[in-house]
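Supplementary Methods S3. Complex input for the flavin-adenine dinucleotide-bound model.
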Amino acid sequence: LLVKRGAAKGRYDQDTIEAILDRALVAHVAFATENGVFCTPTLFARVGEMLYIHGSQASHTLRVLQAGAACCVTVTVMDGLVLARSVFEHSANYESVVAYGRFTTVEGTDERLEALRAFTDKLIPGRWAEVRPPSEQELIRTEIVRMPVTEASAKVRSGPPDDDETPDAELDVWAGVIPLSTSFGMPVAAPGLRPGISLSESVKRLVNGHGPGPRVEQ
Ligand SMILES: Cc1cc2nc3c(=O)[nH]c(=O)nc-3n(C[C@H](O)[C@H](O)[C@H](O)COP(=O)(O)OP(=O)(O)OC[C@H]3O[C@@H](n4cnc5c(N)ncnc54)[C@H](O)[C@@H]3O)c2cc1C
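Predicted complex, serialized as structure tokens:
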């Protein structure tokens, strides 16, 4: 499981791995069945060393995972484009995690609620406390599975291009990093939102707290 190409970018400590999992919004879950190889994009959340995904009872992916299929989960955060003087040295700044394991079904109501809270508050911190909790029926219709993140590696690239100290630095070509960030835009109210309902505090914090994007009134 050691990172071989670009080995210096490999990280194996749990803190780094968990921090990347918490930053990333989407995971790709890959698995093989007798019908072929699949790779499903999905939201996910982390609680401790457990990675949770959820979906409907009808989900093919969840059914295969619940049956104990070996799988590989990857997450990626892109932080920038790295422009060098040569095509060859161009790169990207990123943080990524690759984890191997098997998912099991989460049965207990407390853990299921905790996982759903983690999904919600990961994306919109504080939202769980503002909205109606899941009903018993909604809980029953939601499948939740968990995988311990114990066999995992991270890979991280940051900083400028690698050709500053090479003969290419003599070329008259701009080189450097173009940062790339994910930000939230101005919230758009649901067409059916009743008049007079102001933005939730969690939404204000989310929109105002991320990068140079728009700001909503406090
Ligand atoms: C950002 C993001 C977040 C998501 N979050 C969740 C989540 O939290 N929970 C959840 O259940 N689902 C989520 N989905 C949808 C998920 O990717 C699957 O479409 C869904 O879970 C159904 O899975 P399935 O195995 O039943 O697919 P099936 O409907 O059985 O898929 C049949 C075939 O359709 C194609 N297909 C399936 N999904 C996609 C897709 N997303 N894009 C393109 N082709 C596809 C593939 O060829 C697949 O083999 C998310 C998708 C995205 C892009």
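The mean pLDDT is 94. The longest strand covers residues 70-83.
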